[in-house]
Specification:
Helices cover 36% and strands 18% of the residues. It has 16 helices and 19 strands. The protein has helices at 6-34, 54-65, 107-116, 143-147, 149-170, 192-198, 203-218, 231-237, 254-260, 304-310, 316-324, 352-357, 387-391, 426-434, 457-471, 481-494; strands spanning 46-50, 69-73, 85-87, 93-95, 120-124, 127-131, 134-137, 245-249, 265-267, 272-277, 283-287, 292-295, 297-300, 337-341, 362-368, 374-381, 399-402, 413-416, 444-446. Helix 10 (304-310) packs antiparallel against helix 11.
């Protein structure tokens, strides 16, 4: 056996660490050198914003405040993007997919709501899980709490290790934020499934607890390759050992979009059919209503496939990068279509009282399949906790069910989540970072969930503010230092600093 002296081993380790740091520094300098420089527009300049979700509306709102002329082009008949709403039979309008958010993490979105004077309320969102091995409820002791008591302890240990490592590398001092990023953090690339296994957490706990609960946030049951660095954020958002608590609108999200877009030109039910870059980087857009639009800049706030389709032929690099981005639609369709209904029989009769009377926000049922895996049916119980539903004089079940094999009576519509959520994995994150090579080229910018390191209303909202600032609009919340710091961090990640 050959014994390697400790001093030599330490030298080799130090050399490799130093080399890695040097390569990362060189890569960062390369990105800064090669990315296009900002070109501010004159006040009053016309800017086409393709996509009327929170990212596009953020860019338009910020630009309009600074005297620019944004024009929002949205192919759907309403604004809102993923924040879809529905009016129920009792006249109450609620959200369907984007429903609530963590107060500590959504600093910029909270600042927007305060500025718009949109009222919010604190709500509790307990989950109920029904599996072949028993049930779980956030409300207290249950079959799966007892079965997996050791796994719950190991999960807390995993959360603590990743939180401590990330805090030390990012110098976060325990501050919760989506926007702390260190290229040296090994948990950036360690898949969630592998991290869970490394800490001795059982496969049963993964299938019965982790996947059903957190698939509700990611709108996919394929969680294996999600970077494990997100574990502390998941625990802060939806803790496994205590009832989740979040903020939601006193009314619904449509109030936010109405106030943001009150003075902005909006073209609904309209698509871009042609895009040509002319003299002096002027953009000529052909629209599906037969009209043409001449603008000085274009902001792509739609999904990546639509952005790639609309880009001019000269933007070949941007089209190629966008085509690399993968969406959950590519490998999992469990949350692609949801049924809007009031059929309470989707909850088994023996559990109906436990689920409804205890005001659970989600009911998740896991059923074994022929190949030995589990199929997850997820019902969002909107009527049990949404403030507008609680105030209604006429009560009714307000449910949105995904991936159900049951016959649902009297369906009232569908929620279409197609091409709404990019996959959260290291490969997609790399493609998103590389978009900074094309951000601003010919005054074309990209924002939304595909251009950020994850899915979330706050991330998409900030991304819209960031591209608006690149075009000349000032940051709208300068006195809110915590929000401003998050804004600055995401600009760096997007290469817009």
């Amino acid at each position: 056996m050959v014994v390697i002296p400790c001093s030599i081993a330490m030298f080799d380790l130090s050399f490799y660490i130093a080399s890695l740091i040097a390569l990362l520094w060189l890569f960062k300098r390369l990105l800064i050198t090669l990315r296009p420089s900002k070109r501010y527009l004159r006040p009053g300049a016309r800017v086409a914003v393709i996509g009327g979700g929170i990212a596009g509306c953020a860019a338009s709102w910020s630009l309009k405040r600074q005297g620019y002329h944004p024009i929002v082009i949205e192919k759907r008949p309403v604004l809102g993007g993923n924040a879809k709403v529905h009016t129920w039979g009792n006249g109450v309008t609620t959200g369907l997919s984007v429903l609530a958010w963590p107060a500590l993490y959504f600093r910029n979105y909270n600042a927007l709501l305060r500025q718009l004077q949109v009222p919010v309320e604190t709500v509790q969102l307990p989950f109920f899980i029904n599996t072949p091995r028993g049930t779980f409820s956030h409300h207290g002791d249950s079959d799966l709490h007892r079965l997996y008591q050791d796994d719950f302890i190991k999960w807390r240990r995993l959360v603590s290790v990743i939180r401590t490592t990330t805090g030390w590398l990012c110098q976060s001092k325990g501050e919760p934020s989506f926007y702390f990023l260190s290229l040296l953090n090994p948990f950036n690339i360690l898949p969630l499934r592998w991290a869970v296994a490394a800490f001795g957490i059982s496969t049963g706990f993964w299938k019965d607890i982790i996947v059903p609960i957190y698939s509700s946030s990611f709108l996919t049951t394929e969680l294996t390759f999600i970077p494990s660095v997100i574990v502390p954020i998941l625990e802060d958002l939806i803790p496994l050992n205590s009832t989740p608590e979040m903020l939601t609108w006193s009314n619904n999200s449509s109030e936010v979009f109405a106030k943001m877009m009150a003075d902005v030109e909006v073209r609904l039910s309209t698509e871009v059919t042609a895009h040509r870059v002319g003299v002096a980087a002027k953009h000529d857009l052909g629209l599906s209503d037969g009209t043409n639009l001449s603008v000085e800049a274009v902001v792509y706030a739609c999904n990546a496939p639509n952005a790639a389709r609309c880009l001019p032929a000269s933007s070949w690099l941007a089209r190629w990068l966008l085509s690399r981005l993968a969406y959950v639609d590519h490998n999992n369709t469990a949350f692609q279509q949801g049924v809007i209904h009031s059929d309470g029989s989707v909850i088994p009769a023996d559990l109906e009282h436990s689920v409804f009377a205890s005001k659970h926000a989600n009911y998740i049922e896991a059923q074994p399949t022929e190949d030995g895996s589990l199929a997850y049916e997820n019902t969002f119980i909107v009527g049990s906790w949404v403030p507008a539903a609680q105030r209604a004089t006429k009560k009714q079940h307000m449910l949105v069910t995904y991936n159900s094999s049951k016959t649902i009576s009297d369906p009232q519509g569908e929620v279409d989540n197609s091409w709404a959520h990019p996959q959260l994995n290291p490969v997609n994150s790399v493609w998103a970072v590389l978009l900074q090579f094309v951000q601003g080229r010919d005054n074309q910018y990209f924002c939304g969930s595909y251009a950020t390191p994850g899915n979330g209303h706050d991330l998409s909202f900030i991304s819209g503010l960031a591209v608006a600032e690149c075009l000349g609009a000032e940051y709208p919340f300068p006195a809110n230092m915590a929000a401003r710091v998050d804004f600055g961090r995401l600009k760096v990640i997007m290469g817009l600093d």
